[in-house]
Amino acid sequence: MGIATINPATGETLKTFEPASDVEVQTAIGRAHGAWKSYRNTSFAQRSAWMRASAELLDAESEDVARLMTTEMGKTVASARAEVAKCVRALDYFSNHAEQLLADELVDASSVGAARAYARYESLGPTLAVMPWNFPLWQVIRFAAPALMAANVVLLKHSSNVPQTAMYIENLFARSGFPDGCFQTLLITAAQVEPVLRDSRIAAATLTGSEPAGRSVAAICGDEIKRTVLELGGSDPFLVMPSATLDQAVDAAVTSRIQNNGQTCIAAKRFIVHTDVYDAFTAAFVSKMEALRVGDPLDPETQIGPLATDQNRNDVDALVRDATELGAQVLCGGRPRDGRGWFYPPTVLAGITPQMRLYAEEAFGPVATVFRVNDIDEAIEIANATPFGLGSNAWTSEASEQQRFIKELEAGQVFVNGITGSYNELPFGGTKRSGYGRELSAHGIREFCNLKTVWIGA
Length: 458
Known about the structure:
Blueprint (H helix, E strand, L loop, with lengths): L2 E5 L4 E6 L4 H18 L4 H17 L1 H12 L3 H25 L3 E2 L9 E8 L2 E5 L7 H12 L3 E5 L5 H13 L7 E3 L7 H6 L5 E5 L2 H14 L2 E5 L4 E5 L5 H13 L9 E7 H16 L19 H16 L3 E4 L14 E4 L16 E7 L2 H8 L4 E2 L3 E3 L3 H10 L6 E2 L14 E2 L2 E2 L4 H6 L2 E8 L2
Parallel strand pairs: 5-6, 5-8, 6-7, 8-9, 10-11, 10-16, 11-14, 13-14, 16-17
Antiparallel strand pairs: 1-2, 3-4, 4-20, 9-19, 12-13, 15-18
């Protein structure tokens, strides 16, 4: 696929772009490296002022940005508006808290024979961010806001189907006052990423995306001995025990599965339900999934829009067909919708076995699988039976069960009686093949810092 805006609701190509030439890429890297040499010496107060200005601009332009994202990748306009608002909060948060999060860490100087000793956080330099299309604004902002406040500069390689959103973000930071070269969008192909990563002026990289893409970036940066943070796929479990408040669990299950048209890494995908409440939960879940309104994502009444690309719809359908051919039961949905656009209906499957790809693989669309289990041991076993470990949900009122889920679920995040989400105050990331490193919070802003030890004698 070339670099283009293609409306997922219609399949119509709206605008195409030529990839940047190798000379243009080299010029951009040089501009970033030159900008960093001076930008790293700016004060927190100055960076904070620029960051606050970007929050104000984005807030003022929220409706236009939301409609742009909807047009480029098909998310409902309501979810697009929510994404913009979340980005505004992140820009404000790191503007207000970065100095505190990166404060020098003093130690007992006398214990190390010094007059003064401490650890300080310093920027690493130009960082390449390889970002996906599913949250085209949020995925970038959640990295860029802390990175810029830590005095790094950013080069963005965004997904090829959201080029206008990518260019908007560069324009946003430029209009907010950030010096030239501090944030640049590179309209490049996947094949052009490796030379950028191997350039000695690039200090580090972060990627949110697929496992194959993560492997590639990690391998290149490992060879170059450069720091990376990876946030890859997820096949998150949603566990329901008999003590759960069932109506709340069902509502949360539907919301979690269909948010962003089902294209969310931390969305619940595998619903693991105790046999005592399985029938009631599944009946209510299927009923609510069937009732969802699928259609034009710009219509405020629409609850599920199209998938972002034709290939994504084909991938989801292939997973469903594999499962049904091996004996899975379709409780609702299960076939692509006819007509224009890349729509796929809300789908629920039961009878999933380890021989089916859906048992462990991620379905990046509105497809849910339900499992009946007899006890908490079986629930945890199935929950962990996947190579991924991004997020997890557990619904129970029993304190002992809550503690077992917190301790034994193999994931970067465990949410008990609530939907998995990302918050500026909490670290975000996964384990196993869902990647490594963290974004957001103090842990995230420090990922791309050099932790320097300072020892001063008497």
